[in-house]
Design brief:
Elements lengths: L1 H19 L14 E7 L2 E2 L2 E8 L10 E6 L2 E4 L8 E8 L7 E7 L2 E6 L13 E5 L4 E8 L3
Parallel strand pairs: 1-10
Antiparallel strand pairs: 1-2, 1-5, 3-4, 3-6, 6-9, 7-8
Amino acid sequence: MIRHYRRFSFVLSLAASGLMAGCSGSRDDLPREPVAGTVTLDGRPLAEGAIQFTPASGSGGPAISGTAAIENGQFSIPRADGLVPGSYKVSVSAVPVKREPRGQITIGKKKATQYKEAIPAKYNTKTILTEEIKRGGASDLKYDLQSK
């Protein structure tokens, strides 16, 4: 139960950051595209985590972000919540299987343990990953991450 709460809180915080970046939901007339793919870490599917697509600066289109949970290396964003064609920065986050506490955070009225990030900063807070989403969607995105 606690594990699911932590994963939910983790994905919820990424989704909230996507909303702050300008995601207006599926109640618009934007040309959204579905997005799906795989994430591996050192050649193995990432057990669980989150992936976020943030419009790259100067992409020219509407500022629409997208976030999805990663489970067993797979992620998908349906068309209703999809991305508008354009250039995006991609960030991937995950908590390691052997969880190393980093401190306490407060979510609402509850305290939760914050854990060390399993994915190197070059794939999340200092991401080097980019993606070009085109009309017709993207169902074969692949991110092969290396821990070192």
